[in-house]
Amino acid sequence: MDDLTEAERAALTEWTTVAFDEAVAAGYIVPPWRPTLQAYEQMHGYYTVGLSPADAAQAMFATRH
Fold first, then answer.
1. How many domains does the chain have?
2. How many CA atoms lie within 13 A of 39 on its CB side?
């Protein structure tokens, strides 16, 4: 993530905030949950491939079968 411009980093930060808000709204996580560096890196991957914040929240936190 060090190779991002300031504008790209701001967009990623905003997108990640929305994704975590989506996860809370869906009941996947309960505040005061604190993301780890690994969680941020995983979200960066979802952002890079073009998932929406809601899809990223589901991919990261939904129950897997």
1. 1
2. 14
Q: Which amino acid is residue 11, in one-letter code?
A: A
Q: Round to whole Å and give the CA distance between 24 and 14.
A: 16
Residue length, the chain?
A: 65
The pLDDT of residue 65 is above 90: no
d(C-alpha 4, C-alpha 59), whole Å: 23
Residue 1 maps to a domain: no
Q: How many CA atoms lie within 13 A of 25 on its CB side?
A: 11
State residue 1's pLDDT score. Answer: 63
Residue 39 lies in a domain: yes
| pTM of the predicted structure, to 2 decimals | 0.85
